[in-house]
Design brief:
Blueprint: H1 2-7, H2 10-32, E1 34-35, E2 38-39, E3 48-49, E4 52-56, E5 61-70, E6 85-87, E7 91-92, E8 96-106, E9 115-123, E10 126-137, E11 143-150, E12 154-163, E13 169-178, H3 186-206
Parallel strand pairs: 7-13
Antiparallel strand pairs: 1-2, 3-4, 4-5, 5-6, 5-8, 8-11, 9-10, 9-12, 12-13
């Protein structure tokens, strides 16, 4: 193998290195099932698209986005200048304030349904304590906004419930994790790591 590599021209070596790097990027992408168009893995029900996570029940499809402010951050007098960090599908690094926006995507008639919102603390996948409830009301604009105080680490569920167009009860669940492990973000960062590795390999093999 060494003799074959030694007989290759410099240009061919570079071509093979770049081709191999691209192949690895594609292979890892398929392994994690992630792309800029959405996350098909099991980390979230419907994925991540254009800054919004989508989630659905049999009756309703919503878009969910959130902005997070850490507990120890002092909000300035001009609230518009506050430092807020977009969160990926309800994964929050630490306790703090979470400003959520829910878009009623489908069906359009959902804007006429009275909806109730409830935040619950979870233990072992079971709700053990209700932390907040918003009474049933309609959202004619199709947009629901609310500020949640996430006081401690752990798992939570934000429930959106009501009756659909057929008057059947439904409940849509939005998972929220406070204190998400650092390694949860690795699948979203793999392209950067692989590009860096490819650049290093390219620099190494240029010397041959």
């Amino acid at each position: 193998m060494d003799s074959i590599w030694a007989n290759l021209s410099t240009g061919m070596r570079r071509f093979l290195v770049l081709t191999g790097s691209l192949a690895v990027i594609v292979a890892v992408g398929l392994q994690f099932h992630v792309s800029s168009q959405g996350d098909m893995s099991g980390t979230y029900p419907k994925g991540f698209r254009g800054g919004t996570c989508t989630i659905e029940s049999d009756s309703l499809v919503i878009g969910y986005s959130g902005y997070f402010i850490p507990t120890n951050y002092e909000i300035p007098e001009d609230a518009t200048g506050a430092m807020s960090v977009p969160v990926l599908c309800g994964k929050i690094p630490s306790p703090g304030t979470l400003d959520v926006t829910i878009d009623l995507l489908y069906p359009e008639s959902a804007r006429e349904w009275p909806l109730t919102m409830r935040l619950a603390k979870m233990e072992g996948g079971v709700p053990v304590k209700t932390l907040m409830t918003v009474p049933s009301k309609t959202y004619e604009t199709g947009i629901i906004t609310h500020v949640l105080n996430m006081g401690e680490t752990g798992e939570y569920r934000l429930y959106l419930s009501g009756k659909d167009g057929n008057q059947a009860d439904f409940t849509l669940e939005i998972p929220i994790i406070v204190g998400a492990p650092w390694y949860d973000s690795i699948p979203q960062l793999w392209p950067v790591f692989l590009l860096i590795a490819g650049a290093i390999l390219y620099r190494i093999f240029r010397k041959f």
